[in-house]
Amino acid sequence: MKTITRSALAGIAAVSAGLLLAGCGAAPEEETASGGNGGTEDAASDFLPCIVSDFGGFDDKSFNQLSLEGVVQAAEELGVEWKEVESNAETDYAPNLENLVAQGCNAIVSVGFALAPATIENAKANEDIDFILVDDAADADFDGETDVPTIKPLLYDTAQAAFLAGYLSAGYSETGKVGTFGGQEFPTVTIFMDGFKQGVDYYNEEKGTDVSVVGWDGETGTFTGGFEAGPEAKSAAQNIIDQGVDVLLPVGGPIYQSALQAIKESDSDIALIGADADLYETDPSTAEFVLTSILKNMDLSTYQAVTDSANGSFDPTPYVGTLENDGVGIADLHDFADKVDADLLAEVEALKESIIAGDVAVESYLG
To answer: How far apart are CA 46 and CA 79, in angstroms?
Structure first.
């Protein structure tokens, strides 16, 4: 378990770039997989969409999986094949992208901010290819201007959805303590934790309560140092559980699996909050523990960006998913529907509308 200060953020991008660009050369041919139904004879029959994962892999039941689902849906509707390549380490990113470029991909989806340096480099060298970058702005200024006009950034203001989950968790909690921890202290991780804490704080302001957030104080918090399920993630979860929380939000792909293991081994009733995808749907083993999930609807935005590329209407203006455009949200309560007070649910729904209307402000690095 590691505690990191927000001051570390300034150097992260440069450090990540150095690590990611360390890999060079062509990725092994056998690492690239193809799918699809063989294509049709329509105008888009020669279009080839491709996607490369970060080292979390496409079976992360999270953002890699959702992004792949968007590519697959677009390819199937277009009647074309697609290619997918999975990264096993950071040093795979640049070679994997170069490999897809060499295979004639017309649109390439890079999943995760960690692929940004390699994506920008390849986009500058291959201006005839549309690149779709998930979770990084690619130097865009959010006003439609970008230094790399062949990259479409897909961004998500998950703080808005996490705000709702924080408010819900504070109202659900009986111990007066809820918790969160992350994989690494990147903005795409802490945006969940920021929104979650803001939602809890807002509940306290509205209700005159004192529900506390363990694991993130808005500046520093608990991070495992990576995004893998394992001893570090379980230890982080256990440390927070030991402080008396009854709701826990792990942010970082597969680390939720370690949190779930710690919850199962505890003597307390602790609800799990999912991140990115609806864990109840993507991992049924979590069903009895998941209160809700904070959704980043990457499948929808990836699908739209790939489809636009195929139709010749590719637009590099950054997409920002919000509550208003359904780019982010919270999942159905599923098995917890009968465990949550109806008045609390009504308050969460009203709060969503207030955020959309601008009556309740949610702060995040996206504005």
So the answer is: 10
* CA 198 to chain CA centroid, nearest Å: 19
Q: Which amino acid is at 250?
A: P
- CATH classification at residue 230: 3.40.50.2300
Q: Rounded CA gap, 306 and 71, in Å?
A: 7
DSSP, collapsed to helix, strand or coil, labels residue 146 as coil
Q: What is the pLDDT of residues 44-92, one digit of tens each?
A: 679 999 999 987 778 777 778 899 999 999 999 999 999 999 998 889 9
Helix H or strand E encompassing 52:
strand 49-52
Q: Are residues 12 and 143 in the same domain?
A: yes
In-domain check, residue 332: no
Q: Domain total for the chain? A: 2
- DSSP helix/strand/coil, 213: strand
Is the same domain home to 191 and 106?
Answer: no
Phi, psi of 51 (to 5 degrees): -150, 140
- CA 185/CA 180 separation, integer angstroms: 13
Whole-structure pTM value: 0.84
Those residues with Cβ within 8 angstroms of residue 367's Cβ, 6 or more apart along the chain or in another chain = 142, 157
CB 322 within 8 A of CB 366: no
233-254 pLDDT, tens digit each: 999 999 999 999 999 999 988 8
**Is residue 364, in this structure, part of any structural domain at all?**
no
User: What are the phi and psi torsion angles at 124 (to 5°)?
Assistant: -65, -30
The whole-number pLDDT of residue 210 equals: 98
